């Protein structure tokens, strides 16, 4: 168990919405020593807030992280293109990278589904906010009733979607789609994202559609899904089931919403909150292997 006397030196690369919210989560976590918040925009609100909290900041991006000395973990909240270039450099420097972009350099991880103590790749990919919200539900169904096909629709508030996410929307969708099969266990997957411009903004909502074999125990499916909801809530308290799994012919429908913790971003930005909460959960698990 990591103690306050052995706080883990970490850095955040990216000072946009995700990086800034993550900074507040790390700030309140006694396991980590945030040594650096790095970006490329000197005028960014994230860097200004980091300075207000007393953290060292830099506009030198990845170079600042690599020159940061004894940093053990970096949270990359930039873009898929940037992380593909940065990942081999982090690995060479012996820095464990938690990738919050859809770059998919390292293995895909959803904490309550497939995280273990094996971090040989020195890089893990958190896929997307939609994947973090929906894969636990697909996995919940699949472990008691084989999922032949999974389709998810993630609806997020336009105000919660920054330029980085918009730039990566194609990678976001494809990476999520592949992970429904690779991590969730579905035979095939399809992912859709709806960026909702409604004002006031709506909380992140997700619909999960799973086609299963005919001979299934409906109560077992419901119990398994409810158990997965509780597991997600261990690190994302605002995660909740709004439509319990119900069967229509050969498929089950499930609805979940994610309310953010409000560390920096508004509560409606549950899409950003859940991927940041997953990043912290991965960092905690990796940190435990260092002691």
UniProtKB/TrEMBL annotation:
This protein's species is Cupriavidus necator (Alcaligenes eutrophus)
Record-given protein name = Acetaldehyde dehydrogenase
Q: Which family does it belong to?
A: Belongs to the acetaldehyde dehydrogenase family.
What would be an example GO MF term here?
acetaldehyde dehydrogenase (acetylating) activity
Q: Name one Pfam family in it.
A: AcetDehyd-dimer
Which SMART domains has this protein been placed in?
Semialdhyde_dh
Where along this sequence does the record place binding of NAD(+)?
15-18, 160-168, 271
Organism taxonomic ancestry: Bacteria, Pseudomonadati, Pseudomonadota, Betaproteobacteria, Burkholderiales
Q: Which reactions is this enzyme annotated as catalysing?
A: acetaldehyde + NAD(+) + CoA = acetyl-CoA + NADH + H(+)
EC number per UniProt:
1.2.1.10
């Amino acid at each position: 168990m990591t103690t306050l006397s052995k706080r883990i030196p970490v850095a955040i690369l990216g000072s946009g919405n995700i990086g800034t919210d993550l900074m507040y989560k790390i700030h309140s976590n006694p396991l980590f020593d945030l040594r650096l918040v790095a970006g490329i925009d000197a005028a960014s609100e994230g860097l200004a807030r980091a300075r207000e909290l007393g953290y060292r900041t830099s506009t030198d991006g990845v170079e600042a992280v690599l020159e940061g000395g004894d940093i053990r973990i970096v949270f990359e909240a930039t873009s898929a293109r940037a992380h593909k270039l940065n990942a081999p450099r982090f690995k060479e420097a012996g820095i464990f990278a938690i990738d919050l972009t859809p770059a998919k350099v390292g293995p895909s991880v959803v904490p309550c589904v497939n995280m273990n103590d094996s971090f040989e790749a020195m890089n893990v990919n958190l896929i997307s906010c939609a994947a973090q919200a929906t894969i636990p539900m697909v996995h919940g169904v699949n472990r008691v009733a084989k999922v032949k096909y999974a389709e998810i629709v993630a609806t997020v508030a336009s105000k919660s979607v920054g330029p980085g996410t918009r730039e990566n929307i194609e990678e976001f969708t494809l990476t999520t789609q592949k992970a429904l099969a690779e991590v969730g266990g579905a035979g095939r997957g399809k992912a859709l994202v709806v960026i909702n411009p409604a004002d006031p903004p709506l909380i992140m909502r997700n619909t999960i559609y799973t086609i299963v074999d005919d001979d299934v125990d409906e109560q077992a499916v419901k119990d398994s899904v409810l158990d997965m909801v509780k597991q997600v809530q261990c690190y994302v308290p605002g995660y909740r089931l709004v439509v319990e799994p119900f069967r229509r012919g050969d498929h089950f429908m499930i609805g979940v919403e994610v309310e953010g913790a409000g560390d920096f971003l508004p509560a409606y930005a549950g899409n950003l909150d859940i991927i940041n909460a997953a990043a912290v959960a991965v960092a905690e698990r990796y940190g435990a292997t260092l002691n």
